[in-house]
Every structure is written in C-alpha cells, then in structure tokens.
Write a structure and sequence with these properties.
Radius of gyration: 27 Å
Strand content: 5-15%
Helix content: 25-40%
Strand order of the largest sheet: 2-1-3-4-5
Shape: globular
Largest sheet: 5 strands, mixed
Mean pLDDT: 93
Oligomer: single chain
Number of strands: 18
Length: 643
C-alpha cells in the first residue's frame, strides 16, 4: 500500500465546512470542472476488469507514452452500465467529459487519435457529461439523456465511475465527510437516530426494517459497550451492488458507518466482506488508512470526544453468513450458524453486546440523509418505502448493470426503458427479484411498483436488490431447481426443516426434470405426486425453519408454482419442457424436407439412434435417443431441431 499523507488543514477545513461543492481553485480541479491537461478515465471495477479493462489501461498508457502526450490517467470504479464495459472517459481542456463504450485494447489508438484531432468515433461513443462553461461535443447525447441513466436517481451511486476511489481529496471535493462533521459538531446521538427515522430509510439488505428505529434499540440499552457491523457479504446470485459501491466510492460507506456508530454509541465497527471481493477489500483498506491519516477515523475524530475503529473481517463466502446471527458467529471466530431470536442482536449481539447490523447500501444512504435532510430523502418513494433503491440488473436484458431508481418505480420501466428490453428480440417471461430468498414476477405483474409492500403481494421480496431477467427460453422449473440447489448446498444444516426439507424439494425437482428412462415404477408414482409434495414441504420449511434464510428458502418454488404451474404440469404429466431447456426431457427430430442424407448425424450419434441411407432423409428413434444434441451440432443444413 502506498504511503498515506495527511491533507493540508486549510483544504480539509474548507471541505468539511460544506462549501467544497462551490469552492474554486483546487476543489474545482478535483471536481474536474476544468482541467489543465487531458484526463483519461478508465473504468477499473470488477465488471470492467472482467471485460478486459486491464488491457485497455495498458493500451492507453502505451498510446500516451508513444505520442508524448502529457495526460493524467485516472482509474475509476463502475459507472453502472456494465454491458458496455470496458468504458473509458476523456476530458480535454475546455471540453466536456466524453464516454466511450466497449473500449477493448485494439480500439484505443483509433478513438484517442481521433479525439485529440477534434473528432469522435461514432461507433464507440456512449455519451458526454453536461457541464456549464465547457464546450460540448457535437452530435453526442448527454449522459442525462442516455436511456440507461436518464430516469435514474443516483444518490448512492453518485460518485461511482466519476471519482478516483483511491483519493480522499476527490471524495472531499464532492462534499464528502461534511455530514460527519455536521453530526459531530452539532447533533446528539438521539438527534441522528431521529433524523434517520424521520427519513423513512429502511434496511436495504432485504428485511426492510426501519433503520432509525433499529438504531434506537441499541442506543437505549444499558450496556454501553456496543458494536456496529456492516454486512458486505452479498451472497445472492446476480447481486453486485455492494461490491460496486465499495470499489467505486469506499469513503461514502466509511462516512455512513462513522455516523451510524456515533448514533448508537459504538466505538468499534466491523465490515464483514467476502474474500471473493479482493478489489473492494483493497480499496476499503486504502480508504480506512486515508481517513485515519486525516482524523476522520480513529481517536477523537475531528477534535471531538468521539473515537471509532473500523476493522475489516473477511468471510469465506458462506451464503448463510448473510444472516445476522450467523454473521456475528463468524466474526467471533465460530462456525457461521444462526441462533434463535430473541434476543435480537440490537440487544445481545457480537461478543454478547448490543450490535447493529446494516448492509452497505443502507449505510451509504446515511451521509446523504444528513446533508440533504430527512424531508428531501422522504420526498421521493412511496408511502412505506422512501428514497432510492439500487438494483443489479442482469440476465436476458439488453443493458445490464447497476440501476438506482426512486422507490415506487414500475418494474416494466426498469426492464424495458432503462434495461432496453429483452435481448435478441425474445419475449419477456419473468424476473427473479431478491435472489434465492425472493420470487419471480411474471408478465402479468410487470407493471408492479417496486417497493417493500407491493412485492410481497405477488409472492416476491425486495431482497438485496438482484434483478435477474428471464425470457421465453428459460424454463421456470429449471430456474427453481437452480435456486433450490444453491439453497440446499448453502444450508448450514443446523435445523432439520431447512437441511432435510430443501434436499427433498431438490430431489423432487430433479425427478420431474429427468427422463422416464432414469426412474423405476415407484419413482414414476412419486413423480405424479410431486407438485402436492412440493407445496406441503414448502409450507413446513417456511413455518418451522430457524432463520430467515431457511424460512424464505421455498420462495423460488412457491412463486414459480403460483405463476407457472402449467410448466410443472407439462414436466410431470407430459414429460416435456415447454421451453426446451431441460436437457433430459429434450428429444430431437429431423425435418424430412431439409435433410440431405449426408449421414454426418448418424455417424456422430453415440447411441445409434439415427438411421437412413445416403442422399435420403434420415429418422431418429426416440426410444434410443439420449438427447445429447450431437446430431444437431453436426448437421450443416439446420434439419435437426429440439422437440
């Protein structure tokens, strides 16, 4: 880690006064309101790196060096539009900042050479940032007009992809830590709890419990030794919101944690983060060191009598450790297993002391609430769900990425307007929201408003914010089997309903997606009773499991049964997968008009199921066919199709 130096005290005082957003001079340069030389920003979040951003960065460095250009190269986090990574931005003196998409290393020279000559490569340009006083690029849309960003309300993600996450000066230049200064210089602990409660902020990790009210439980306990824990475990498949926030704007989380810890009277806080997030951990460690060096963490923060130590605790990736009490056990060095509640962690948690656990997004909202005021935060959203929500939009959608919208935004708008609709011209089928503990939402409910109460009415839940979109090629039985397999493998095994019940449910799902050749007479009978058994098992698991994860484990099966029962019946009674996705229920047939009799399919069939003579149409014996698809792979005329 590079050496961390403390900032100039005059600079720090101006930043913390709340005037940094309008201050000129160095602040203006840090906010990139003007630049004195070219600045090239490279998106180096995990999504960018996965798309090849590291090679793009090297290509940018090579171009600048070979052409002897005096330019600043800045590594930033994910701006949110993951589908278009790698993304680079360029800002020339006097001109607006412009973004280019899908910037693989082979495109760097052409794009940069054109831009330095005053021209824009149209096929790579994404948008430009609107800024008064700077000359815009002609025929390039502004970022606030881009269909992905136009209707978002970016509060938590405001700095992601914009600032350098490894420079505290840039966070300060955008108003960072002013909320912490405001709290420590003029607000009591109760005042902070009241303000957050008034804002209507609810837990963004899935439970949706009022955050301010939760803090008051711990603050009101007689035990003065209290802890704050940030849950950055994020174990849901398809969820990557917390990771992106920490990678792109780690100081926002630290500031939120400092305010929350002050509000409950905690002097030690933990960030529980999975070890599979190495970049997020690296940025977080660096940010903690920067904050300590500038008295924003540590002893007597900003000259007050309040002190706080933040410790990073890496988890091994167990899904169950996203549950509060299991997470506490893991921090204590024990096996991550839930315990009965009450007592709740707010009364008796980490090391037997009162503990508040909030997830990354909940805490990242706190500085904004203090700065803008509770009323403004509560001014958007619905009656029971205030503020914004960050979603990880993925799956069969054209524009995948991070989306932050006001609570109450319709699901249709997120998928079809922001996300650009279903990819490859396919038809929308469902969206899985809330991960394994959530549920699917079919086309009939796609106009539902996204808030805590509305989602419950259709058998789903907010969860941490994963949105996995599925199209007509997805089999909902197969989707339920995927999530049940995940849940069964991740079950801690402590309670029988979850440990054994999910296993039985998974066995049933495997049975009804298997070929009749793989079952005996008893299993055939059980197959026809499967749907009844699934529903009964689901009810028992939901009602008797120890923790929230076990209680919500049947949700994927229950929601798919509710909205796609016809698919289950087709699997059970007709032994067919309507979506042609379940491999063991697929067979193949040859189109007699397209078949040229080349014999390649019969030669490649491992089961000897194809017969026919040269230059005459062939046929497939479905009794022998094992559904491997080798014939379809070898056919050069498109004559073989799934049935």
């Amino acid at each position: 880690m590079q050496e961390i130096k403390s900032l100039d005290q005059e600079f720090l005082a101006t930043a913390l006064s709340g005037q940094s957003a309008t201050a000129g001079g160095e602040f203006c340069l840090l906010r990139r309101e003007k630049v004195e030389k070219p600045v090239i920003y490279v998106g180096m979040g995990t999504c960018g790196l996965g798309a090849g951003a590291a090679f793009t960065l090297e290509a940018v460095k090579k171009y600048v060096s070979q052409n002897q250009i005096d330019a600043e190269i800045v590594e930033v986090g994910c701006v949110g539009l993951c589908a278009m990574e790698p993304i680079i931005d360029v800002q020339l003196p006097g001109r607006t900042r412009i973004s280019f998409q899908r910037m693989t290393e082979d495109k760097v020279d052409k794009v940069l050479s054109s831009l330095f000559n005053g021209e824009v490569v149209a096929e790579q340009v994404m948008a430009q940032y609107r800024k008064d006083g700077l000359e815009p690029w002609s025929n390039v849309i502004f970022m606030d007009e881009h269909p992905f960003f136009a209707t978002q309300t970016r509060w938590v993600l405001a700095n992601c992809g914009i600032i350098n996450p490894k420079r505290i000066e840039e966070y300060l230049a955008f108003g960072g830590y002013a909320a912490l200064k405001k709290v420590l210089s003029g607000m009591s602990q109760v005042d902070v709890c009241d303000e957050v409660e008034k804002s209507g902020l609810r837990g963004r990790g899935g439970g949706g419990f009022p955050t301010g009210k939760k803090w008051k439980f711990a603050h009101g306990t007689e035990d003065k030794h209290r802890y704050l824990v940030c849950n950055a475990d994020e174990g849901d498949p398809g969820a990557f919101m917390d990771r992106a926030v920490i990678e792109g704007d780690p100081h926002r989380l630290l500031e939120g944690m400092a305010i929350a810890a002050y509000a409950i009277g905690a002097q030690k806080a933990y960030v529980y983060i999975r070890a599979e997030y190495p970049l997020a951990i690296k940025h977080l460690r660096h940010a903690i060191a920067e904050a300590k060096a500038n008295n924003l963490l540590g002893e007597n923060i900003l000259g007050s009598d309040y002190s706080l130590e933040i410790v990073i605790k890496m988890g091994a990736g167990a899904f169950v450790c996203g549950e509060e009490t299991a997470l506490i056990h893991s921090i204590e060095g024990k096996r991550g297993m839930p315990r009965p509640r009450p007592p709740f962690p707010a009364v008796k948690g980490l090391f037997e002391h009162p503990t508040i656990i909030n997830n990354v997004e909940s805490l990242a909202n706190v500085p904004g609430i203090i700065n803008m005021g509770a009323d403004k935060f509560a001014g958007i959203g619905t009656q029971g769900s205030k503020g914004t929500k960050v979603f990880a939009l993925s799956g069969k959608v054209s524009r995948t990425g991070l989306v932050e919208v006001a609570m109450g935004t319709k699901l249709r708008h997120v998928i079809f307007e922001i996300g650009g609709g279903i990819a490859n011209g396919k038809k929308y089928k469902a969206v899985q929201i809330g991960g394994p503990s959530g549920g699917c939402i079919p086309e009939s409910n796609v106009d539902i408003e996204i808030d805590y109460e509305s989602l419950k009415q259709v058998g789903a839940m907010m969860g941490s914010g994963g949105l996995v979109v599925m199209d007509e090629d997805n089999c909902m039985v197969d989707v339920a089997k995927f999530f049940m397999d995940f849940i069964q493998r991740e079950s801690c095994g402590k309670c029988t309903p979850c440990r054994e019940g999910t296993r039985r449910m998974l066995e049933i799902l495997r049975r009804i997606t298997s070929s009749y050749r793989e079952e005996n007479e008893r299993e055939t009978l059980e197959r026809f009773q499967s749907i009844i058994h699934l529903e009964k098992l689901a009810e028992v698991i939901r009602d008797t499991s120890l923790c929230g994860l076990g209680q919500t484990a049947p949700n994927p099966v229950l929601s798919t049964l509710r909205w796609f029962r016809n698919e289950y019946e087709a699997h059970v009674f007709d032994r067919k997968c309507p979506a042609l996705a379940c491999v063991r229920l697929i067979s193949y047939e040859i189109d007699q008009e397209k078949c040229k009799g080349c014999t390649l399919c019969s030669k490649g069939c491992p089961a000897g199921a194809i017969s026919g003579t040269v230059k005459n149409p062939h046929v497939i014996d479905k009794e022998k066919c094992v559904g491997c698809g080798a014939c379809a792979d070898t056919c050069r005329f498109g004559a073989i199709k799934k049935v």
